[in-house]
Design goal:
The chain has 179 residues and is of the alpha/beta class. Helices cover 28% and strands 28% of the residues. The protein has helices at 26-36, 54-61, 74-87, 98-104, 123-133, and strands spanning 44-48, 66-71, 92-95, 110-115, 137-148, 160-168, 171-178. β4, α5 and β5 (137-148) form a beta-alpha-beta unit. The longest helix is centred in the middle third of the chain and has 14 residues, at 74-87. The termini are far apart.
């Protein structure tokens, strides 16, 4: 897998193989960062269900100021840490269940939040609820959830409002902003 843009463009990262490993494809990654445009530059980026860490690494390559990556799988955490070292980036990688990690992040706000839970997982709604409850999204920020196209997400929560949905084959990206 390769970084598709920014100062690390073309550089490869390691990706553990196995069931449940589903890195965001290059087409979808490029779409995300094309939509975000200049917002990535200087952004505080939170990557939930980071997996291989590719989205967060891509954000750093494209100028994000900081990254916190949350991943439960210890093998993936080690891969993210190895990729950060290989690319010369610094970031906080938190190993743990997002339902326990996100409350600890309360008080911090992120300009861009990206979540890629396993498709069809009940974690999707849990993430949406937690980002809202712990007020993790900055005032002018954007929260993106990658999910299966056939999985519907609510139009709003107490503080978040769906602003856009994009489809790429069987993958959908749903965008939320603060109300």
């Amino acid at each position: 897998m390769r970084i598709t843009g920014g100062n690390a463009r073309g550089r490869s990262i390691a990706s553990p193989q196995g069931p449940g490993v589903r890195p965001t494809g290059a087409k979808v990654r490029q779409a995300v960062f094309n939509i975000l445009g200049a917002r990535t530059n200087g952004a505080r980026f939170l990557d939930i269900c980071a997996g291989t860490g590719l989205i967060g690494l891509e954000a750093l390559s494209r100028g994000a100021k900081s990254l916190i990556a949350v991943e439960e799988n210890r093998q993936m955490v080690k891969a993210i840490q190895a990729s950060l070292k290989k690319l010369g980036y610094e970031a906080e990688v938190i190993a743990g269940d997002l339902r326990q990690v996100l409350p600890v992040l309360e008080g911090q706000q992120f300009d861009i939040i990206f979540a890629d839970p396993p498709y069809g997982s009940p974690l999707t709604n849990s993430i949406l609820t937690s980002v809202d409850k712990y007020s993790l999204l900055a005032e002018a920020g954007v929260f993106i959830i990658e999910h299966a196209r056939n999985q519907a997400l609510p139009d709003e929560t107490e503080r978040l409002l769906k602003s856009d949905v994009r489809h790429y084959g069987q993958t959908s990206l749903t965008f939320f902003v603060r109300r």
